[in-house]
Amino acid sequence: MTNPVLVEVIRGPLVESRHRGAVAVCDAEGKTVLAIGDDAAAIFPRSAVKALQALPLIMEGAVERFGLSNEELALACASHSGEAAHVAGVERMLGKAGLDPSALRCGAHWPVAQAAAAAVARSGAPSPLHNNCSGKHAGFLCVARALGVDHADYWRPTHPVQQRVRRVLEDFTGATLGEAQCAVDGCSVPTWGVPLRNLAHGFAKFATGRGISAEHAKAAARLRQACAKAPWFVAGTGRFCTEILQLLGERVFVKTGAEGVYCAALPGQGLGIALKCDDGAGRAAQAIMAALIARFVPLAASERAALERFVQPVLRNWNDFEVGRMRVSEMLA
Amino acid sequence: MTNPVLVEVIRGPLVESRHRGAVAVCDAEGKTVLAIGDDAAAIFPRSAVKALQALPLIMEGAVERFGLSNEELALACASHSGEAAHVAGVERMLGKAGLDPSALRCGAHWPVAQAAAAAVARSGAPSPLHNNCSGKHAGFLCVARALGVDHADYWRPTHPVQQRVRRVLEDFTGATLGEAQCAVDGCSVPTWGVPLRNLAHGFAKFATGRGISAEHAKAAARLRQACAKAPWFVAGTGRFCTEILQLLGERVFVKTGAEGVYCAALPGQGLGIALKCDDGAGRAAQAIMAALIARFVPLAASERAALERFVQPVLRNWNDFEVGRMRVSEMLA
Question: Is B13 at the interface with chain A, CB within 8 A?
């Protein structure tokens, strides 16, 4: 099955590039509300399921035990930009669990935010704290400490922490996750292949608390609220996930993942959204998600106006000249 | 027409992402040797035609007049990484033409090379010299000076420099280039939409000197030789264009462009290559070009082995774990 073109990138008089993809929107009972392209194919959700990966943090009592704040819970769900307060927050989480940054096994990379990268360059080199996944890893380490297990190998698929994550993903998505679905993510933890429509179903459960245990429902609500209260910690300055959470609060939880994935939970509509660009393009995935939010969430005129720059982004060059724009397919409208 | 999948990105047990695209390989008479996908569609070649954009530099006598070196000619054809010697070379070119960096109108961006970006961050902020197109712009300024015209607006489509560039592109590609084909590039000069097969035809002429004037043929050979002699200046440390030029010298001229474009000239085979990934992905375009070089250029075993890491790249994560690989379509083999 060939997925349709969902985003065109226009420069001057021509369509310069095209992005294909698939979209699934489901309710908590698993009913498909919208399917575009192959919604049965398994995809790696990558960082788009960090909020599900963070659920054991609440389920195992780590939040109370270590007194984690909303900001720290948001960091556990985050792909952060490596800005100073992100880094400080992750270090603080680790300290609350009696650990230091040497426990992180995510690897180091330069901060996603250019200004933060420049600041790091002036004082040294990036550490694992700057890795966009360091909050998720700090969360995993908190779970290991709460469980009272050796934390050294917390990232391995066989470790009790990752086994709990796997079971959460199975509970929410309804997919069976074994070796045949398992790959290694950019930060070295397992990423599990899940059919797109199952992922959307999982986020509808995450949005509503229906179809899961009362404990899972409560934990999901806690994480959604934490991210809505500390949106900057979910991504960073100027980033889409942060801007949407700032704009719409608890009405939309949205999270990006590598290789063109986005997931969202719409509590008011009782819906979950999962999408994947065939080619892995984040720019297109973001425009598609913006269009789906505009379609499914009732918005005030000012909110709709604020969203528009993500739905139909203007492309500017190094001199800030307008050189083109992106156009989402009418299929999404 | 739907272009075929030419590159699959594999993670663990699954194909995670897919890149579609089109390929044209032509000889200097315009005969198609290989066509994959829609080779009649117009694409913006972007930086892949910098060597054609640099031809007026030779045609108008700027090389002799200002005593430009091979390194400086290579910079005029380059999308450089903004490393120290690139920046110094561009500044030297400008100085030879009696200008300084304030004449550049390409806009500033951080060096493509991470180490160079960190070095710039330690001492300040990037300038237009660090823009990957600054060598091309310095070349345009040299042409303006050689022509004795006001250089201030050298980047505008109506300026004598850009009109000369447009005519070179028309002569080489056989396409008629007017307003209906014109857009603005990332560095603000015009980029002209050209059918993919015409672009391949143009590079076959660039490779062989056939089908163009003796002056153009001589100038093309001069640029190919300069790039083969100073390959580091065409891109930079570890970059594909540089590595291929270092590996194969004058046997292959290859140049990348934004949004998934690559062009190449194979003098020994009398062929030109042009390719475009539908989605604009550079990673896929590079693998496709590597596969085409392996297909069309007779290689020693050691050369073939050196090329293999570009044809079937291994994907590693932040901990340097092997997490996947890219696989090019058998259509390219």
Answer: yes
How far, in Å, CA of B265 to CA of B270, rounded?
8
How many angstroms separate the CA atoms of B4 and B19, rounded? 8
Enter the DSSP assignment of B174: -
pLDDT of residue A1: 83
Would the pTM of this model clear 0.90, i.e. be above it? yes
Q: For B45-56, what is each residue's pLDDT tens digit?
A: 999 999 999 999
B20 contacts A20? CB cut-off 8 A: yes
Any chain B CB within 8 A of the CB of A134? no
> CA of A219 to nearest chain B CA: how many angstroms apart?
30
- Give the distance, in angstroms, between the CA of residue A202 and the centroid of all CA atoms in the same chain: 13
Each residue of B142-163: b (16+ CB within 10 Å) or e? bbbbbbeeebeebbebebbbbe
With DSSP H G I counted as helix, E B as strand and the rest as coil, what are the percentages for chain B, rounded to 5?
50, 20, 35
DSSP 8-state secondary structure symbol assigned to residue A11 = E
Residues B175-187 have pLDDT tens digits of 999 999 999 999 9
What the block records as the tokens of A156 is 């391995």
Closest CA to A20 of A10, A7, A9: A7
Burial class (CB in 10 A: 0-12, 13-18, 19+), B256: buried
- Kindly determine whether residue A14 and residue B42, on different chains, have CB atoms separated by under 8 Å: yes
Pairing of strands B253-257, B182-184: unpaired
A99 vs A91: CA distance, rounded Å: 9
Q: What's the pLDDT tens digit per position in B76-85? A: 999 999 999 9
- Select from A231, A257, A259, A258 the least CA-distant residue to A245: A231
Partner residue opposite B321 with nearest CB, options A11, A19, A184: A184
Q: What is the dihedral of CA B3, B7, B9, B14, to 10 degrees?
A: 70
B36 is written with which tokens?
A: 């994959």
pLDDT digit string (tens) for A148-196? 999 999 999 999 999 999 999 999 999 999 999 999 999 999 999 999 9
Reported ipTM: 0.97
